[in-house]
């Protein structure tokens, strides 16, 4: 069988102290893969420290450094780790099973069938190819300024991405602080998708959206007949989140008595359903989020200090959008593509003048407000052309002038009006490709009025192109 370009990309290291086994595997694999041999675990580790290998076929029982110790060292490599398939005699299959639990992809018993070997390797390489693709796509997203669904390239967001990567590898509780609209739930979901609990559930609860008298039942569930209207047993969010993550948004709104019950669950990892006697144990990681300063609430006596420290094991603070204006073009591009896809329209461009105003605006509602503004503009647009100053809400379109007023600009009202009008007319002309009739229609003025304003402001396509 001839080698194919795809096959030869993968490198396999066979580690076995028996020469007949090594030779047999080499004959089976050499037509499909680039194969190297090692007699001992020590030899294998020396090669792996110098060369990237895609897969190791490793004998369980070898003199010197045995297969299990070699596997442990492979799993501890700093460079890209290969997949490992263990070879074990029938009487040592127990070790093969143990090896899989410790990180090996699979194990095969001796004597082996060549078809079994090839099939296991094919599956291992398919897994490796998928992981490489995910790694590539993730790195490409980061180049574009993204981390999962979180968008940003600013130093503040890079620090957030760094923390998310670190936090996702632990099972400790996390407290995410940030103003409304900064993306606290997106960060919580990124921690879930990147971490060891990604195979478990992600259960979000907005503590502010549920009536306080129902929150205990919402958290812990209730038994049938435990209160008026409890017609059947209900499973609470803690049970639903077992082996996963429970995201508690707006944690600052919890009443003190419920804070005490939440603290007990965090300490004991067990609770009773409302009206129930049976203790229920759970394994849940808590990610809490708040737009309030919990330290101040602790100082004022409205939030329990012991609960704060239980939640604040790994803190992440999200910056407001006004502190990272350089991320706004990335967010605008992301939101416009997403919104346009949902409404089945071509994503519009944003003129440089309009983008400048979007970057200058303070965004009190943060990224959520930006998304809502863009969605409104896409909905009101004709579906053609670009988004210019004339499409922006008045509070954003006048940002520059509001800013000048606040900083004590010496412009008179007439000068400020003329400067804004010039920008507005220029934006309409650029949006229509300097088609005067189209620009006049867009501005809802007569074409002759437009010509007079172009003369007054010294606007011309020729000057634009110079």
Keywords:
466 residues; 22 helices; 5-stranded parallel beta sheet; alpha/beta; 4 domains; Rossmann fold; 49% helix; disordered N terminus; Helicase, Ruva Protein, domain 3; 14% strand; 16 strands
What does this structure look like?
This protein has helices at residues 5-8, 19-29, 41-50, 67-75, 93-101, 114-143, 155-167, 184-194, 212-220, 237-240, 256-268, 294-300, 305-311, 328-342, 352-360, 366-380, 394-397, 399-406, 413-431, 436-443, 447-456, 461-465, and strands at residues 11-15, 34-38, 55-59, 83-89, 106-110, 146-147, 150-151, 174-177, 202-206, 245-249, 270-272, 279-281, 285-290, 314-317, 349-350, 386-387. The chain is of the alpha/beta class and 466 residues long. It folds into four domains: 5-138, Response regulator (Rossmann fold); 148-318, 3-Layer(aba) Sandwich (Rossmann fold), CATH 3.40.50; 320-399, Helicase, Ruva Protein, domain 3 (Orthogonal Bundle), CATH 1.10.8; 410-466, Arc Repressor Mutant, subunit A (Orthogonal Bundle), CATH 1.10.10. Strands 2-1-3-4-5 form a five-stranded parallel beta sheet, with helices on both faces. Helix 4 links the parallel strand 3 (55-59) and strand 4 (83-89). Helix 20 (436-443) packs across helix 21 (447-456). The model is unreliable at 1-8 and 402-408 (pLDDT under 50).
């Amino acid at each position: 069988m001839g080698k194919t370009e795809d096959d030869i990309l993968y490198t396999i290291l066979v580690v076995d102290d028996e020469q007949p086994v090594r030779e047999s595997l080499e004959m089976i694999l050499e037509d499909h893969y680039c194969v190297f041999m090692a007699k001992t675990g020590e030899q294998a580790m020396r090669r792996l420290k110098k060369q990237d290998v895609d897969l190791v076929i490793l004998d369980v029982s070898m003199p010197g450094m045995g297969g299990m110790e070699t596997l442990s060292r492979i799993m501890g490599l700093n460079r890209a780790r290969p997949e490992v398939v263990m070879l074990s005699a029938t009487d040592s299959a127990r070790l093969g099973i143990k090896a899989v639990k410790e990180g090996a992809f699979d194990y095969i018993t001796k004597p082996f069938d060549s078809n079994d070997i090839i099939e296991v390797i094919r599956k291992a390489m398919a897994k490796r190819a998928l992981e490489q693709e995910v790694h590539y796509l993730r790195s490409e997203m980061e180049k574009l300024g993204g981390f999962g669904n979180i968008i940003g390239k600013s130093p503040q967001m890079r620090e957030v991405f760094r923390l998310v990567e670190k936090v996702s590898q632990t099972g400790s509780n996390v407290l995410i602080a940030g103003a409304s609209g900064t993306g606290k739930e997106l960060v919580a979901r990124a921690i879930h998708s990147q971490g060891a609990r990604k195979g478990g559930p992600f259960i979000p609860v907005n503590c502010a959206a549920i009536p306080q008298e129902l929150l205990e039942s919402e958290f812990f569930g209730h038994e049938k007949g435990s209160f008026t209207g409890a017609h059947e047993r209900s499973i609470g969010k803690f049970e639903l989140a077992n082996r996963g993550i429970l995201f508690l948004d707006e944690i600052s709104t919890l009443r003190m008595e419920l804070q005490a019950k939440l603290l007990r669950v965090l300490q004991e990892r067990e609770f009773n359903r409302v009206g129930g006697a049976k203790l229920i144990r759970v394994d849940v990681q808590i990610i809490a989020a708040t737009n309030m300063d919990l330290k101040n609430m602790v100082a004022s006596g409205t939030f329990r200090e012991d609960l704060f420290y239980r939640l604040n094991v790994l803190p992440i603070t999200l910056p407001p959008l006004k502190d990272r204006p350089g991320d706004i073009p990335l967010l605008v591009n992301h939101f416009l593509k997403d919104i346009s896809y949902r409404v089945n329209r071509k994503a519009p461009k944003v003129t440089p003048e309009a983008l400048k105003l979007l970057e200058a605006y303070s965004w009190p509602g943060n990224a959520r407000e930006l998304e809502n503004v863009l969605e409104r503009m896409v909905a009101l647009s004709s579906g053609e052309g670009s988004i210019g100053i004339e499409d922006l809400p008045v509070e954003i379109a006048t940002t520059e002038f509001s800013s000048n007023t606040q900083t004590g600009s010496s412009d008179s009202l007439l000068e400020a009006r003329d400067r804004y009008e010039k920008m507005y007319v220029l934006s309409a002309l650029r949006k229509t490709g300097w088609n005067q009739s189209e620009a006049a229609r867009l501005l809802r003025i007569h074409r002759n009025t437009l010509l007079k304003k172009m003369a007054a402001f010294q606007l011309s396509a020729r000057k634009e192109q110079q």
